[in-house]
Amino acid sequence: MKYSNAYNVLPDDIVKIIQEYVNGEYLYIPRREEEQKKWGENSGSRSTLKRRNEEIYLKYISGVAIFDLAKEYYLSDKSIRRIIGQQRKNVIKTNTE
């Protein structure tokens, strides 16, 4: 995120109105709600974790033990169980649609 001088992007009268509220302070103006991106969309983290979780589930249903998955992915048993549960719900949801 970069800063822009308000005088370069807004009409002078709007800048003067804003100065009545936040004179000389930094002001963050968020994106419109419909244009906001979800966590991890820019960096690719979201898709990386999605692929990892799908991989964990496929290994689990092919017989790999939770303990072994936890060791392989450096996660706790509880995290592996949570991922398996979420993936199971996704599969059921996909099959019912």
TrEMBL record:
Q: Which Gene3D superfamilies match?
A: Homeodomain-like (1.10.10.60)
Q: Where is the signal peptide?
A: none
Which SUPFAM superfamilies did the record assign? Homeodomain-like
Domain Mor transcription activator stretches = 13-94
InterPro entries per the UniProt record, alphabetical: c-mor_Regulatory_Protein, Homeodomain-like_sf, Mor_transcription_activator, YraL-like
Specify the superkingdom.
Answer: Bacteria
PANTHER family cross-referenced by the UniProt entry: MU-LIKE PROPHAGE FLUMU PROTEIN C
NCBIfam families, from UniProt?
CD3324_fam
Q: What is this protein called?
A: Mor transcription activator domain-containing protein
Q: Which organism is it from?
A: Clostridium fungisolvens
